[in-house]
Design a protein that fits this description.
2 copies of one chain form a homodimer. Chain A has 2 domains: 56 residues, Arc Repressor Mutant, subunit A (Orthogonal Bundle); 143 residues, Tetracycline Repressor, domain 2, CATH 1.10.357. Chain A is mainly α. The N and C termini of chain A lie far apart (67 Å). The interface between A and B is medium-sized, with 30 and 30 residues. The structure holds a DNA duplex (30 and 30 nucleotides).
Chain lengths: 209, 209
DNA sequence: CGAAAACACGAGCGATCGCTCGTATTTCCC
DNA sequence: GGGAAATACGAGCGATCGCTCGTGTTTTCG
C-alpha cells in the first residue's frame, strides 16, 4: 500500500529545492489553480517525468512549499515576538518590534501570499498553514492580554482577530507598492493598529496622554 | 464579423436572470477557475447548449454578473455617501452612515467577494470593477479632504487607500461570522477606521477631546 | 396559418492538463 | 567492476472542461 521512501542522493535533494523554487515563482505568477505542473517543470529546467520522481502530485508540491513557508514564517514570528516585553514596552516600540520582521518576511517571500491567500486552497494546504495561524493568534492574544488586562476574554478574542485581519490586509498593499511607498505604508499600518489598540490599554476614567 | 444582437423574448430574459443567479451561487461555492460552465447550467436547470444561447463564453457570464454587482454596488455607495455632510457630522455618526449600507450590501450579495476578490481575475473583469473602485476611492478622498484639510495631498491618497483596504479586509470577517458576532465585529470595524482617522482631523497643537 | 426567429436539448469535439511509462543515463556501494 | 537504486527524459494516456452543432420545440408576427 504505502510506497517506501526512497533514499535521496545529494543531486536529488538539490533538484527538489530547485523545483520548489520554481513552483514558488510559478504560483506567484499564476496562482495555484492556473499554474500547470509542466510549467513548473519547465521553470525548474526539468522534464515532467523528473518532477514526478520527487513529488507525488501537484498538491504535494504545494504542500512541500507550504511546509517551507511555514518554517520560515515560524522563524519570522519567533524573531518578531521573542524577548518582547509586551506589558512594559511603549506601544510604538512594541509595534516596530513585532511588525517589521513579519513585513520583511513577506517582502522576502513573494510566493507566500499567492499560495495561502487563495479561497480555493485545498484542505491539505489549509491544514498545513493552520498551526502557524494559531500560533500567531496565540501570540497576539498574549500581547492584548498584557496591554489590556481589563478587557473581557470575549472582546480579547475579537480584538486579536481584528488586529490579525487588518495586518494581513495591509501586507499585499505594502508588498505590491513601489519601493519608495513601502516605508510610509508600513508607518500607516502601525498607526492603524496602534490607534486601534491604544484606547483599550487605558482603564475607564484614565486620561493620561 | 460582429454578430448582430438577437431580440430576446421575455422567456429568454428570465432565463438570463436565472443563469446569472446560478452562476453567482456556483462562483461563491467554487471560485471562478474551479467553477465549470456545465455546473452553472445544471444549477440553473438548463442544458449547456441553452446556456450558450445567452452568453458567449464563461467570461461573458462573469462579466454580466460583474455588471450586475457593479450596479448594485453603485446604488449601495450612493445610499452610503449621498447627503452626508462629511465636514459637519460627528465622526461616529459619519462612520455609521457610510459603513452600514456597504456592509449590508456585502451581506446581501455573498457571491460578490467570491468573484472580485480573486487574484487570478481575468483582465476584463478587473476592468468592469475598476470604475466602481475609483468612484469609491474618490468618495473616500472627499471625506478625508473634508475632515483633514491640512493633510498634504500625497498623504491624503495614502490615507484613503488604507481606509479602503482595511474596510475591504474586514468585510469577509463580518460576512463569514455567525449572526450574533456580526454586530460587534462591525462596531470594531468602525473603531479601527474611526481611531485611525480621528487624529488626522485635529490640527497640530489642537487637543480638544 | 405559416414562416422565421428564439429557445431548448445533450452528445460529443477539440484542447488542455495532471500524470504515467518505457527507456536511457548516472551514482552508490559492495 | 558490476548490479541495484536513483535520476532523467518526453511522448502520450486518460480525464476534464469549455464550447459546438444538429435537431427539435415554442413563440412571434405579418
Amino acid at each position: 500500500m504505502t510506497e517506501r521512501p526512497r533514499r535521496r542522493q545529494a543531486r536529488g535533494q538539490q533538484r527538489m529545492v530547485e523545483i520548489l523554487d520554481a513552483a514558488a515563482r510559478v504560483f506567484a505568477r499564476s496562482g495555484y489553480e492556473t499554474a500547470t505542473t509542466n510549467a513548473i517543470a519547465a521553470e525548474a529546467g526539468v522534464s515532467p517525468g523528473s518532477l514526478y520522481q520527487f513529488f507525488a502530485n501537484k498538491e504535494a508540491i504545494a504542500h512541500a512549499l507550504a511546509d517551507r513557508f511555514v518554517t520560515a514564517m515560524r522563524t519570522a514570528h519567533e524573531e518578531a515576538f521573542a524577548g518582547v516585553d509586551a506589558a512594559a514596552l511603549p506601544l510604538p516600540e512594541l509595534l516596530d518590534r513585532v511588525i517589521d520582521p513579519i513585513v520583511a518576511f513577506n517582502l522576502a517571500n513573494p510566493g507566500f501570499k499567492a499560495l495561502f491567500a487563495r479561497p480555493d486552497m485545498p484542505e491539505g494546504l489549509a491544514a498545513a498553514a493552520r498551526p502557524i495561524q494559531e500560533s500567531l493568534f496565540g501570540r497576539v492574544m498574549g500581547i492584548v492580554a498584557d496591554r489590556a488586562p481589563a478587557l473581557p476574554p470575549e472582546e480579547r478574542v475579537r480584538t486579536a482577530r481584528v488586529l490579525i485581519q487588518v495586518f494581513q490586509a495591509m501586507i499585499p498593499l505594502i508588498t505590491a507598492a513601489p519601493e519608495p511607498e513601502r516605508g510610509p505604508l508600513t508607518v500607516e499600518l502601525k498607526h492603524v493598529l496602534g490607534r486601534y489598540l491604544d484606547p483599550l490599554t487605558r482603564l475607564p476614567g484614565d486620561d493620561t496622554p
